[in-house]
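Please, structure for the following, as tokens.
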Amino acid sequence: MKRICFLSLLVVLVWRTATPVQAQQYSDNVVIVLDASGSMREVMPGTRTSKMDAAKTALKEVLKQVPPSTQLGLLVFSAANLRNDWVYPLGPRNDEVLLAAIDQLQPNSGTPLGSYIKKGADRLLEERTKQFGYGTYRLLVVTDGEAQDQNLVNSYTPDVMSRGITMDVIGVAMRGDHTLATKVHSYRRANDPEALRRAIREVFAEVAGSAADTAQAEAFELLAPIPTGVANAMIQALSTSGNHPIGTRPKSVAARAQAAATPSPKPPQVQSPQPPPPPRAAPPAPGPSSRGHSSHLRGFWIAIPCLMCFGGVAALIVLIVALARRGRRR
């Protein structure tokens, strides 16, 4: 019970130390993973419109209605004419850039869906770290076929779901449901252009912001004695919990807190080289004359006490002899 209370207090600490500006700057985040494989050139049943053209039209119509508080990212795999698969990096909506990016897409090649699920989810986790966990995070997959790297899809999808990322899949003119239909939060069929527009619109209608809860005053009082440095380290550790890349093992909270609290080493300062100090002159070695002079002085000071002692003894003998003679005369 004590452990649960302590963990609850740590969560309150995160809210307490986050400034009001941080709480107001959160955003909802949606990364769209769009299939541009060769099969997207095929026309949709009952129409003369290709799957890719229908997807382009639907995306352009719906994304223009997305509120400014929602950040968008468009990640495209297998397109023929792209140098960067992030045709629109995750960020605020810029209609001119976004619509131009969508228009240039040309279908080509295969369906490496698994690796792109990871790539899109990893970017959302990076953003969640920056936003201290505020906001919502959604991965929308628009595809018309099964993945070539199905083993990666099977491995990464449960990991994405377990991290609090909402995962939606739209199957474009598929004969049957995609294998992800029963593994994600929502699955929608889109067998014609209107159904595709409706499916994308429904996904974005579900995107909703989340406001930060207010902590209790008693918890503030209990947590007030915690030093600022320790608090900041705990915040960083807790806010990055679960945000490690998909398919990797997390670090412990203690390790993250220690890494956050440890200051990064300062680069060594480059100092201009100083000239070496001039060598001290060695004292001149004593010559023969100086050694002889020192020996004479040392012998002189030793002889003085000896002479004084000898003189005292001689005086004492003289005094004794004199007293003895005086005694005989009497």
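Residues 1-9, 11-23, 209-220, 288-298 have pLDDT under 50 and may be disordered. The radius of gyration is 44 Å.
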